[in-house]
Design goal:
about 80 residues; alpha/beta; 3-stranded parallel sheet; about 30% helix; DTB_synth_BioD; magnesium; nucleotide-binding; cytoplasm; metal-binding
């Protein structure tokens, strides 16, 4: 699951995670996507998501205004789902 880090993302992520689980699917992990470089309380938001989501954080994508031009795999750690 990818979480766009912005106002309201904690509630949205928790509801999405619950919907995935309610459908009988495993939630293998989540990725934080920084979509606003100036967002206040970014670190606190990530910490809250880590605490509340029932899956491992697999990575954090930094703010990249032209992400389609950059390889993103280096920002992910998929060892938690390789089991």
């Amino acid at each position: 699951m990818v979480v766009g880090i912005k106002l309201g993302c904690i509630n949205h992520a928790l509801l999405t995670a619950q919907a995935i689980l309610n459908d009988g699917l495993p939630l293998l992990g989540w990725v934080a996507n920084r979509i606003n470089p100036g967002l206040a309380h970014y670190a606190e938001t990530i910490a809250m998501l880590r605490e509340r989501l029932p899956a491992s954080q697999l990575g954090q994508l930094p703010y990249l205004p032209h992400a389609e031009q950059k390889p993103l795999a280096k920002y992910l750690d998929l060892t938690a789902i390789a089991k």
